[in-house]
């Protein structure tokens, strides 16, 4: 690094980190995204395994009319609470307590219809707003199996094979692996870990350009015997280093959280190793360089500090658009995705988590698709800084 660039770089970095609120914001943003992903996935795991950990609690009204059903429920580890007749309001109040998954109410003519081989009515009452979806699905499976067993027994009693009701036998084979399923969900979530590359350097880039011009300290800096590219380069690198460090820490923390979570309990896994994540961090460095270059160039062309903030706030959303479009249109991974900044980083992580070995080309394309435009934008900003219009803010 040239000495004059280093002087400007250290000056801008020191001024940014000297602000306690700015530094606190940077730390908060670094911790926020990994914490959010960990909390979200932990909630998904908790909901999916709740029925296994806590079991299914069920209240049955009129249980004495179907002892076989109650026995079958208890064989499947369902805790059955037998109850006498209850009004609809009482059932709703019982479900509102969220201590049971559902209430089964057998109709008064259940026994008569059952013995006459007519459909015997069973009412299932549940609260769809309660977080008991997996438990209810388990009850549905038990009741369906119970009905099928009765139908089979009746057919056999009449000399008819139960296979008559099953003209086809569907067998499902899922070739998806835990890693590929994880890549679809977790790969999309971890893609947001790259977004801090466009947040962590915004304040520094605006303050070191539009801010300094308003404070009239930029004129003093430009009076020094340094080229415009050295001044712009120092400011650019000072803003970039914050995002580079921040994104690296965010990715590492997110990776550690995914390694720690018991994803196997929901049929997923996170097989990306630390070596692979280090390569991802390296390939993501130019993304921070590109965002800092864009912010410096945009802030230099803004007439005021406020205009610079407004413009950059709008531009900051742009990197998310390709990812949303790809997810919305359910596009399959293609080579061109590695040529779009931010989308290339998201695709790289997703494919790496899915297949493990994707070759060197995606890393190279991801690295260059951000680095090349970053250098071009910095060159434009250096040229723009030579203009008196920029110094005067006109």
Q: Indicate the radius of gyration in whole angstroms.
A: 31 Å
Q: Could you spell the SSE succession in H and E letters? A: HHHEHEHEHEHHHHHHHHHHH
What is the spatial order of strands in the main beta sheet? 2-1-3-4
The residue ranges in which pLDDT falls below 50 over 5 or more consecutive positions are none
- The tally of strands reads 4
Tell me, rounded to a whole number, the average pLDDT: 84
Walkthrough of the structure:
This protein has 394 residues and is mainly alpha-helical. Helices cover 65% and strands 5% of the residues. The protein has helices at residues 3-18, 20-48, 50-54, 67-75, 88-96, 110-115, 133-157, 178-190, 202-214, 217-222, 228-260, 274-301, 305-315, 320-328, 343-355, 361-385, 388-392; strands at 56-61, 78-83, 102-106, 122-125. Strands 2-1-3-4 form a 4-stranded mixed sheet. Helix 4 links the parallel strand 1 and strand 2. The two termini are 32 Å apart. The mean pLDDT is 84.
Short key terms for the protein model shown above:
single chain, 394 residues, mainly alpha, four-stranded mixed β-sheet
Short description:
With 394 residues, the protein is mainly α. The chain has 17 helices and 4 strands. It is elongated and about 100 Å long.
Draw up the topology in text.
Layout: H1 3-18, H2 20-48, H3 50-54, E1 56-61, H4 67-75, E2 78-83, H5 88-96, E3 102-106, H6 110-115, E4 122-125, H7 133-157, H8 178-190, H9 202-214, H10 217-222, H11 228-260, H12 274-301, H13 305-315, H14 320-328, H15 343-355, H16 361-385, H17 388-392
Parallel strand pairs: 1-2, 1-3
Antiparallel strand pairs: 3-4
